[in-house]
Design brief:
Layout (H helix, E strand, L loop, with lengths): L3 E2 L4 E2 L4 E8 L4 E2 L4 E11 L4 E2 L4 E3 L7 E3 L3 E3 L4 E3 L2 E2 L3 E3 L4 E2 L4 E2 L3 E3 L4 E2 L4 E2 L3 E4 L4 E5 L2 H22 L2 H8 L1
Parallel strand pairs: 1-3, 2-4, 3-5, 4-6, 5-7, 5-8, 6-9, 7-10, 8-11, 9-12, 10-13, 11-14, 12-15, 13-16, 14-17, 15-18
Antiparallel strand pairs: 18-19
Length: 171
């Protein structure tokens, strides 16, 4: 199996996408991220950012990894054979284990561990090790969930057009 990436997907040097992987329009895979669908499928929707050092993986007996559209996966997160629905923010360093489900407009706090089979209800913030439902998300958090995908589409466009390097040279 070879990955199927929409022509608008942005992928940096050092990122790896391997096996039965499909990635939707305007999504981005950043530095040193690994999307490893070598033994089971991985599906990523549109406008989803897989940030630096993220690991997305499955095993042959755990089932697929499904990630919706407009999802932000923070630096260093690990997602394994789970389902993340649309409009979700996964914090830096979070770990999501097999068969957990993250419903729309939810936030998984940085450093959290979402245990196997746990379901995060729509519109909730979960945090901790293991992650527990803490409270409904705030209006500000909802706005961040909605703005973050658009920010990463813009960041990818800036990289593609060489603007990031120009800005760095100007400093």
């Amino acid at each position: 199996m070879w990955p199927e990436l929409h022509e608008s997907v942005f992928m940096t040097d050092g990122a790896y996408v391997i096996g039965d992987v499909k990635i939707g329009a305007h999504s981005s895979i950043w530095f040193n991220a690994v999307v490893r669908g070598d033994v089971c499928p991985i599906r990523i929707g549109e406008k989803t950012s897989v940030q630096d050092n993220v690991t997305l993986h499955v095993t042959h007996d755990t089932g697929p990894l499904d990630i919706g559209s407009n999802v932000t996966i923070g630096h260093g997160a690990t997602l394994h054979a789970c389902r993340v629905e649309d409009f979700v923010l996964i914090g830096m360093g979070a770990t999501l284990l097999d068969d957990c489900v993250i419903e729309p407009y939810s936030v998984v706090a940085a450093g959290s561990l979402v245990r196997s089979g746990f379901r995060v209800p729509a519109g909730m913030l979960v945090a901790g090790v293991p992650a527990k439902v803490m409270r409904p998300i705030t209006d500000e958090e909802r706005q961040t969930i909605e703005e973050s995908p658009e920010n990463y589409v813009r960041y990818a466009r800036n990289f593609r057009e060489g603007r990031v390097l120009e800005q760095a040279r100007e400093r």
